[in-house]
Design goal:
By secondary structure, the protein is an alpha/beta fold. It is 45% helix and 9% strand.
């Protein structure tokens, strides 16, 4: 730190570099936020019927911050919606056809087309809230079901179980296919499937769906045509000859793509963007989890062809940087809300670089490094969120580049994914999910993460990666009380009290347990109960989505939907799961370790004394709390006994998750570990825990050890993570690697920036990464942060608006995430040595 004048920043943060005047303007213009003359905020559209609604609250049931506002959001969009002139026979069509036609009508005829100065990519406005297109009887039935689902969801959260809902996004569409055959080819495939049906099938729901998809398959062509007309008009009026030529070239691009197969790199990126942005329009959901997959692989042929034909390398990067800016305009949906003009981190348009290919070959290529350059030059900026896949054979040049970028970016600009452990998880999914024909040793390398870090296959997989978020710690509380809440719930808005009742199974009076095994059996029974309860909550919203919220455009881009004639919201994809994400893992493990240590091993207290301490929020029990926090064993220290219990906890809930399926769509539950922001907010919901945590203190984050517990350093931390995922065996799920989490697990480690101060320390850090590949988890987020700098950012947020930090599988602007989460980031142990 240096002595700073009132106008100087006290600490240096990462800044963009090497930007052309074009990209500097577009990037700066984006960050003007509400001061811009143009933005991509929501517009709402209605059929004009008095019962019409636009906002689909189901997809936000996993966002507790919205609960108090759900009725307001529904009413506000309804009030602000503009009417669309309907076709004369609109109400005679099936619901999927109505939705398809309405979306196309809005995007082509009502939403204006615009191109910003210097932009090389067309496709600006896409954040829409379109009519649900329900008839009066459909709307009435949906509302009846919502009135059942909403209180069920709210009770589940208020009592500390977590949250669950049928959430949009969070998949990787079949973009490579769209580029290869164009929507002309997709249209032909849908048409052939429809014509293969007999008349009775054409009149069925299957026929309805395929007709809706035929409508949607022409949407990109017609919208591209409108943008082509705009480019022609702008070129005719453009005084700068070079810019006029660019606009003329854009006209030619849009005359071909996305309808025709892409031929050049510029066409491919243009086609990819229009195809992608219309998914956000179709789902009325601006970006979260709609990810690009292995982009450096499927764009490589277009890059090589264009370079061979004379495209300058820097111009290719300009095209990508325009693509970068477009991806960030998803945040304009909420531009007038929040402390950073809607620019949060709720969206995860993830792209994947490098990684293994067939026969164990590394697929790092020239475009991989181009993308890394673009990331480095554009950072700090939130979208798209990059992921770099590493493995035992990753080239040294790639590791060097990754470490150099980590050094200069406080919140590393990418997620690191580790192939061997991740592919082991996907092979476990193939076995437990009964789909060995779809996930095989020959194709498992083509997995890619979505959203934050959630692993799926590409183009044919809807695994509902954030649909269910379960607080494992609740089972510890219920085991202590015999199936009841420890504390009476008081509604923070109304002050209304809910009497404590028997919710979980009556597993007995814990004060009468004489052995650890008795308590473990009670915990196991309560774990099975909370998982079953989560399934019940998920089913309530999944049923509504499957019945009333088709997304026929997205279904055109998910393999399986055409063959089945079924929407992706109705399990049309070839691979269908819903993911149970476990939250509070380390807090749960440490709490069980504390119960075992305090009550049964050392007899430092009775069970009754421990329960009373928790009811008192540890007030008046300082000595016992200190023993729980500092004497009891902890997960995350490479301690065999502690990690063995952690593995026991992991195996219990994972095995239980696989047993369940959704009622309407028959999607199997699969396990994963991603905490998003829940471990902070739910710390205020859940009672004090046996590990010494008082109510109101944040919980543990995903698979990470509890803050302050990993006192043995990052290698021990990583080893504990690898062990609870399964470690290694002679016959693993993939080679010698085992993994019980196909979805993967979020693991964040914060280091002091001095760790990379010279070549010797960089070499040690690369050795740490190689050790993580060998023995660690499936994914890693790295922060290089100075705690004093973060505290200064809290005091002077105006100086740190663009400071990025890693949170849990995603990066966020530090000044926009709220003080509770800021304090959590600061509280993470900063490792200063290996």
């Amino acid at each position: 730190m240096k002595n700073a004048s009132p106008t100087e920043k006290r600490y240096q943060i990462k800044e963009p570099k090497g930007l052309s005047a074009r990209i500097q303007f577009l990037r700066d213009y984006f960050f003007q936020g509400v001061q811009r003359a143009w933005n991509n905020e929501y517009t709402a559209w209605t059929t004009g019927t008095p019962w019409d609604t636009q906002y689909n609250e189901l997809t936000y049931y996993i966002v507790p911050e919205t609960y108090a506002f759900l009725p307001t959001f529904v009413a506000s969009f309804r009030q602000g919606a503009r009417a669309v002139d309907l076709a004369a026979d609109f109400w005679s069509w099936s619901l999927p056809e109505r939705r398809a036609w309405f979306l196309k009508e809005v995007m082509v005829k009502y939403v204006p087309q615009e191109i910003l100065p210097g932009d090389l990519i067309a496709g600006a406005r896409f954040n829409v809230q379109t009519s649900q297109c329900l008839s009066r009887p459909e709307a009435k039935e949906r509302e009846r079901l919502i009135k059942k689902a909403r209180p069920l969801m709210k009770w589940f959260h208020d009592h500390g179980y977590g949250n669950a809902g049928a959430t949009s996004g969070h998949l990787i569409p079949w973009y490579e296919h769209a580029l290869t055959v164009g929507f002309k080819g997709i249209y032909a495939e849908i048409k052939a499937a429809y014509q293969a049906l007999d008349p009775q099938e054409q009149a069925s729901e299957r026929g309805d769906q395929l007709r809706a998809m035929l409508i949607c398959a022409t949407l990109p062509r017609e919208l591209a045509g409108k943008y082509a007309q705009l480019c022609t008009s702008l070129a005719a009026k453009e005084p700068n000859q070079a810019r006029a030529m660019e606009l003329t070239h854009m006209t030619a691009n849009l005359a071909r793509v996305p309808w025709e197969p892409a031929a050049t790199f510029w066409e491919a990126v243009q086609s990819l963007w229009l195809t992608h942005m219309l998914i956000m329009s179709d789902e009325n959901y601006p970006g979260p989890g709609v990810s690009f997959g292995r982009i450096d692989q499927y764009l490589l042929p277009y890059w090589q062809r264009s370079i061979a034909d004379g495209m300058e390398r820097e111009f290719g990067k300009e095209i990508l940087k325009c693509f970068w800016v477009h991806a960030n305009t998803a945040y304009d949906a909420m531009i007038r809300t929040g402390g950073n003009q809607g620019i949060t981190a709720g969206f995860g348009q993830l792209l994947t670089l490098s990684g293994l290919g067939p026969d164990g070959k590394d697929l790092t290529n020239e475009l991989t490094y181009v993308f890394l350059e673009v990331i480095d030059e554009m950072t700090p900026i939130l979208e798209p969120k990059p992921n770099v896949r590493l493995h035992r054979g990753s080239p040294p040049e790639l590791l060097d580049r990754v470490v150099d970028m980590i050094e200069t970016s406080q919140g590393a600009p990418f997620l690191l994914n580790f192939d061997e452990r991740s592919m082991a998880g996907m092979m476990r999914e193939a076995e437990r999910g009964g789909i060995p024909d779809l996930i095989r040793p020959e194709n498992v390398h083509d997995y890619a993460p979505v959203g934050c870090l959630e692993n799926t296959m590409v183009g044919n997989d809807r695994s509902g990666t954030v649909d269910n978020n379960l607080n494992l710690l609740k089972a510890v509380e219920l085991a202590l009380t015999g199936g009841k809440d420890l504390l009476e719930f008081v509604d923070p808005l109304t002050g209304k009290r809910s009497k404590i009742r028997q919710d979980g199974p009556a597993t007995g009076d814990a004060t009468r347990f004489t052995t650890w095994e008795q308590f473990w059996q009670a915990y196991s029974a309560q774990t099975r109960y909370i998982i079953a309860k989560c399934v019940e909550v998920q089913n309530a919203s999944e049923t509504i989505r499957a019945r009333f919220h088709p997304t026929p455009y997205l279904s055109c881009l998910v393999k399986g939907c055409v063959d089945k004639g079924r929407d992706v919201t109705r399990a049309g994809a070839e691979i269908n799961f819903t993911t149970l994400e476990a939250v509070t893992f380390a807090t749960t493990v440490d709490s069980l370790l504390a119960v075992k240590y305090l009550v049964f091993d050392t007899m430092a207290c009775s069970m009754a004394e421990l329960i009373q301490a928790l009811k008192n929020n540890w007030q008046g029990h300082d000595i016992l709390q200190a023993k729980a926090k500092f004497k009891a064993p902890k997960y995350g220290r490479d301690d065999e006994a502690a990690d063995a219990l952690a593995k026991q906890v992991m195996d219990l809930w994972c095995d239980e998750a696989w047993k369940h399926r959704t009622a309407v769509t028959n999607r199997q539950f699969r396990p994963g570990m991603l905490s998003w922001n829940y471990w902070v907010g739910d710390g205020y919901v859940m009672a004090a825990s046996p590990d010494g945590r008082p109510k109101g203190q944040f919980l543990s984050n995903a698979i990470c050890p509890s803050n302050g517990a990993d006192i043995k350093g990052p290698t021990s931390n990583a080893n504990s993570v690898g062990k609870v995922l399964g470690g290694k065996a002679k016959k693993g799920d993939w080679g010698e690697y085992l993994s019980c989490l196909p979805n993967g697990a979020s693991h964040t480690i914060t280091f002091n920036p001095g760790i990379l101060k010279d070549p010797e320390h960089k070499a040690k850090f690369k050795a740490f990464l190689k050790g993580y590949i060998a023995n660690g988890g499936s994914a890693l987020q790295i922060n290089m942060l100075d705690a004093q700098m973060l505290r200064d950012a809290q005091d002077h947020p105006q100086d740190y608006r663009h400071l990025l930090v890693r949170v849990t599988g995603y990066n966020a602007y530090f000044t926009s995430i709220g003080k509770e989460l800021q304090d959590e980031v600061i509280a993470r142990l900063s490792h200063s040595r290996f």
